[in-house]
Specification:
The chain is 34% helix and 16% strand. By secondary structure, it is an alpha/beta fold. Bound molecules: flavin mononucleotide.
Length: 379
Amino acid sequence: MTTRCPILFSPVSFLGLQLKNRVVVGPMTRTNAADDGLATAVMADYYAQYASGGFAMVIAEAAYVDEEYSQGWWNQPGIANAAQRDAWRQVTQAVHAAGASIILQLYHCGSLNQGNRFTKESLGPSAVRPPGKMAEHHGGSGLFPVPRAMDKQDMRRVAHSFVAAARHAIAAGFDGVEVHAANGYLLDQFLTTDTNLRSDDYGGPVANRVRFPREVLQLVRSAVPADKLVGIRLSPTKSTNIEYTWPGGVEEAREIFSTLGEVGNVYLHVSANLGIAEPVFGVAENLPSMARRFSGMPVIACGMLEDPDRAEHLLASAQADLVALSRAALADPDWPIRIQRGEIPLAFDYGAVEPNSKIETALAWRERKRAHLALPSAP
Ligand SMILES: Cc1cc2nc3c(=O)[nH]c(=O)nc-3n(C[C@H](O)[C@H](O)[C@H](O)COP(=O)(O)O)c2cc1C
């Protein structure tokens, strides 16, 4: 093994969870569940590959939390009922057996419903049609519907769905849960001025806009045993609006991160598709460093960190505690082993792997590429 990137590949205790190194798989929706949202054997194989490829932890894809408005895509897995909880066990067992930890991302689509078997309608902080169009590779087409503005009772129901889902996830063998408040989905819609036009104490200044995500995080943290991970994912940009940034810049970041950090015993996961290591808001600092500084909590950074030296630098300069790879992990689930061996990992190729294509397609592509390049399979 090479000594390249000694910090990246050294063990760490992350909020008490022992990890064999500091590289994790970012959450990636694969829409490969059964029609009723049950995780499948194919998913167990798929996730176990990351574990045997050397990743210390997997953040499993966004799973919907209730049987109402939370599902966003057809064939998305759920964690909303006992059958879904039990179906995830094959996944957690396979990943643990292959030597990694696994946590589950908890998700509510909010106004971005493009495939929900319980309803065609959607909820949001305000009745604002989300920008952009439904993704055709997810079976959607046209504009998103205008969501119904949530009242306080809706908010209580949703918060309790996150709690129930978190309990199901722990019972299914996950090592923790991550609350999805990024990329423009429900909790991010509360954070975002474009989609949150509320005039109550959940709208207006950022201190109000962060209130609901914080309440959900707090309730989930209280419901999950202290030795299991709880975190929250944040990103200024949205899947339907990559131009969006936090309008208040550093001060907005300070309010969001410090408020969420007050929950305690949680991690913050920050992502940016165009590069999380880049400085933001016109200052010299990047988002993970701000998240760490303002929250006082450990941070996972995700976004174009497939260059291991860049990832190592982020850790060495104490700007993040773990790095997450999404596209790079999808392209080569053996990424950690290859870097440690001094090999070049397979590169992500949008042309060959449609980002949200089915798992089988991704696996088939990888095998073709492996054969083509005559690359050795990792053990
Ligand atoms: C196929 C695919 C599916 C994704 N699904 C999710 C998801 O379920 N939850 C989420 O928070 N981010 C999701 N993302 C975003 C990634 O986790 C990550 O933030 C983004 O790809 C940037 O990181 P990267 O440069 O390492 O790929 C997805 C990305 C891809 C490519």
